[in-house]
Amino acid sequence: MNETRQKGNFTGGFLVYGYKVVDKKVVIDENKADTVRYIFEQYAMGVYVKDIIKALTEKGILNRNKPFARNTVYNILRCEKYSGIYRHGDEVFTNIYPQIVDTETFNKVRDKINANRYGKRSVEVVYLLRNKLKCGYCGSTITAECGTAKNGETKRYYKCLGRKHNNGCNKQAIRKDVLENIVLDNVISELNKPQVMNTIVKGLMQEQQRQMQCNTALNLLLKEKRNAENSIDNIMSAIENGGTSNTAMKRLRELENRVETLDKQITIERSKVAVMLTEADIREFYAKALRLEPKMLVNYLVKDIVLFDDKIEIHYNSPIMNCPDDMSGFSFCDKYVNMLVCNEYLFNNIPIRLVMYV
Asked: Who's near 101: CB < 8 A, 6+ residues apart?
């Protein structure tokens, strides 16, 4: 068995989803590997497992003719083999399982799973701003708080841990729905600004065109068809000039049959490419879709939020890749500004001034 592992061969037993065995070697099953990558990417962006399963089911992607089970998805997310690593005892092998998920994504998912261990979050209620909030007065983390009113109604808040532990902080608790709506409304408001939306739409149109151009199989078929049609034109010109021979006629029929076959193959390849969306289609979609994945928006765009009683500071992620801050990532802003003063909100009769740093 050890010799088999040293050679990088499959040692038998259960084979994890996304792989298959060919000539004693573990190779990637591309159809299933795309599903594995989708699961990792969605979870890394903050989508919950139940929503990932729902999306896969709606796409018709099943596991053994049944919707994916929660435990199956969690086992996929925890499996280190997808990062190209196989462990046996104290030994580590990187020559057995080809890597399906890049190391950065795998580590990000592993960190999220460790942070979301049982007991660290509510499995029934989604807190959009979990792990994003800190007190502007004492610097403590602001966490979820739940209570029951006299009428039996459940009240949910965000409350400073410092005040909860009696460190002298007097930061007021804030209603969960009020705070989340303030943050979400302003993230969406920024995304909907004309200059921001124009940049998004322009980038998506360019990416769509790039994907069309990068369809290597389609480009090769189109090139071969052009060459065949040019050869047909040359033969037809020769025939028109009096050059008729059995060889030329035979070659002409071969080329005509080849062009017919190529037309069918080109139609198939074009059907694999997503329908080209117009600029109007993209704008209409985003106008309706921004609120469909609020958790993803907050996870991906918002770095952290500092709460005061009279204002809220939202710090957005930066796209600068060489920034020493590990939290740097995507930003929807073209220009960096020190401070944007946004709309005022009323909470407990106190006007809250929202300050956004980018």
From this structure: 36, 37, 40, 82, 83, 109
Alpha-carbon distance of 173 to 304, in angstroms, equals 18
Say how far apart CA 247 and CA 11 lie, in whole Å: 57
Of 216, 182, 207, nearest to 307 by C-alpha is 182
All residues at 6 or more sequence positions from 36 whose CB lies less than 8 Å from its CB, including other chains: 17, 18, 76, 82, 100, 101
What are the Cα distances from residue 3, in Å, to 48, 102, 154? 41, 28, 61
Strands 302-307 and 25-28: unpaired
Q: What are phi and psi of 146, to 5 degrees?
A: -130, 140
The reply to whether the predicted model has a pTM over 0.85 is: no
Tell me if 78 sits within 8 A of 113, measured CB to CB: yes
**Lookup: tokens for 178:** 């009020």
For residues 202 and 292, the model is more confident at 202
Q: Which of 27-31, 57-61, 337-341 has the lowest mean pLDDT?
A: 337-341
Greatest extent of the chain over all pairs of C-alpha atoms, in Å:
103
**Do residues 275 and 285 make contact, with C-beta atoms less than 8 angstroms apart?**
no
